[in-house]
Amino acid sequence: MRLVFALMVAAAPALAQEVVTPQIPREEGLAAWDRIFEVTSHPRCTNCHVGDAGIPMWEALGYGEERVHGMGIVADDSRIGAESVPCRTCHVTSARANTVPHAPPHIDDAWRLPPIELEWLDKSSAEVCAQMRDPETNDGNTIAELVEHLQTSAFVAWGFDPGAGRSAPTGTVEDIARDVALWGEAGTPCVEG
């Protein structure tokens, strides 16, 4: 019994170091979360963050009626559309600017849908918040890694600047990266419900 107690006492400082006290007030973190959710719930993002359905959408982007992505695209497990028509058939991997309205979109990365666990389509603020704060459901990322992803992802950059004739969420890559960092510093608070 003494050995168990001694081990517990020895481990206590290490455990105490893992507890992070938020540096930012909860209210500021919740305000940052509201801005984050405004982006994550924008159709430019949710149309690809479709979860295990693997069917990208064309909703609320100003292209006419809301509907599933054309050409019968189904990403399934590959997330690249290999089970139907690969994303790269129409989405071009290149660093070329997206200047022609509704021309095939270009990014300097291989086109694919986000991982299944990153489903945002039809999810509430509370659901997306709980998902993003948990490495088990955010593709294994810490908050710092999420910030880095936002700052370096060609997909995120394209989402904020998809080119002529395409709608985009409010703000910039820098804005959302700053908000995610702030939200993290506040202890990743979520709204209830």
Q: What's the gist of this structure?
A:
By secondary structure, the protein is mainly α. The protein has helices at residues 2-18, 26-40, 43-46, 125-133, 143-152, 154-160, 173-185, and strands at residues 57-58, 67-68, 92-93, 106-107.
Overview of the structural elements:
The model is unreliable at 1-18 (pLDDT under 50). This protein has seven helices and four strands; from the N terminus they run H-H-H-E-E-E-E-H-H-H-H. The termini are far apart. It has helices spanning 2-18, 26-40, 43-46, 125-133, 143-152, 154-160, 173-185; strands at residues 57-58, 67-68, 92-93, 106-107. It is 39% helix and 4% strand. It has 193 residues and is mainly alpha-helical. It is globular and about 50 Å long. It has one domain.
